[in-house]
Amino acid sequence: TKEEMYAYTYKDEQVMNLVNKDNDRLVGGMQHGEDQGKYPTELRALIRLCGDVMEEEELKRQLEENNGNVSAIIEKIVSTLMAQKVSLHSVQKKKLINAENKTQELENKSEQVKGDQLEQRLDILQKEDERMEIGETKPGINIQGYCMNQDCLAAKAKLPVWVNLGFNEISFHSDKTSYRCPDCSQLTVTSIVKAMFFNSEHSISASDNSIP
């Protein structure tokens, strides 16, 4: 009588109907005599099922360890392959996550570099603005301050202006006197931050030099 055995393959996971034509024994049943020492029928069945994933010598060893129980061997092989598949998926997923993290890190560094470059550019522009001065220094007393005229371009840009007093006036009160703005020509320069004597190494700065 022909005997049938079933196993799941690791590739398509479909049931395969294998016919034992040798009629030597039942699967996982009685063993051959000790004089034979092997399981030729079971080995042929395992080679058909698992020969592409396991060497013949390993299949022989598995048969000896499991007393010729083909079903137990196939179940063990399938479990091992499934575990390897899960492990491979985990490794691939980890690599993907690492790649995404690396990409995000590079993007963050790129944004940081752009931000640093922008900040440096703003600092340069700010320093250039600080160096930009309206008016000019002439012999005599020169004072620097801010124009309070809202229509004045220097006032809108919050740029300091230089006002020359010449040698006629030797004193001034920055909180009471208005000086003529060199940009708008109005007596609207009231916030004085610096006084300078032309061709002198000395300069006097007010204690409050904040921009109005």
TrEMBL record:
Keywords: Coiled coil. Residues 46-128 form a coiled coil. It comes from Reticulomyxa filosa. This is Uncharacterized protein. It comes from the Eukaryota.
